[in-house]
Amino acid sequence: MAEEIKSLSDLETVAGGEAVVEVAAPREPVRDALGRSYATGKRKDAVARVWIKPGSGKVTVNGKEMAAYFARPVLQMILRQPFQVAGVEDQFDVMATVSGGGLSGQAGAVKHGISKALQLYDPSLRGALKAAGFLTRDSRVVERKKYGKPKARRSFQFSKR
């Protein structure tokens, strides 16, 4: 295509007059009556329900402060990642309830929920969060145990005699 297309009419002339162009509608913010956005995050066996609203950056998980619930600094860092990537640190309060799995899976579930809620609150943040991979659910789960085996893949010790 040698000529440059600058408008829809140019596209129609290039394509022979029958060009069908679908333009995606801009995403609308999704907020409830209290100005919050809600999302569900999942990781391993953990499921997190997350509400975000504008505030001072306070994170509450199951009624406790983030530092009290997730004592390890690595887990606290995981929860802060979506805000750092989106560039909105200390601008949103987070209230999360999480159940199932262990602490690492729960931290990943809350991170997934925060990311989804942020992009619902402000759709312009979607590009940065998606590029960082925070909107994709990490679907790795424990493999089930098979019959005739002591674990999922491990076999009993072979004995020739």
Description:
- The structure is a single chain.
- Helices cover 32% and strands 18% of the residues.
- It is α+β, with helices and mostly antiparallel strands.
- It is extended and about 75 Å long.
- The model has no long low-confidence stretch (mean pLDDT 89).
Could you give a short account of the major beta sheet? 5 strands, mixed
Mean pLDDT equals 89
**What is the N-to-C order of secondary-structure elements (H for helix, E for strand)?**
HEEEEHHEHH
Report how far the terminal alpha carbons are from each other: 75 Å
Summarize the structure.
It is built from 5 helices and 5 strands; from the N terminus they run H-E-E-E-E-H-H-E-H-H. With 161 residues, the chain is α+β, with helices and mostly antiparallel strands.
Topology:
Elements: H1 8-14, E1 37-43, E2 46-54, E3 59-61, E4 64-65, H2 66-69, H3 73-86, E5 92-99, H4 103-121, H5 126-132
Parallel strand pairs: 3-5
Antiparallel strand pairs: 1-2, 2-5, 3-4
Helix pairs in contact: 3-4
What key phrases describe this protein's structure?
32% helix, 18% strand, alpha+beta, 161 residues, five-stranded mixed β-sheet
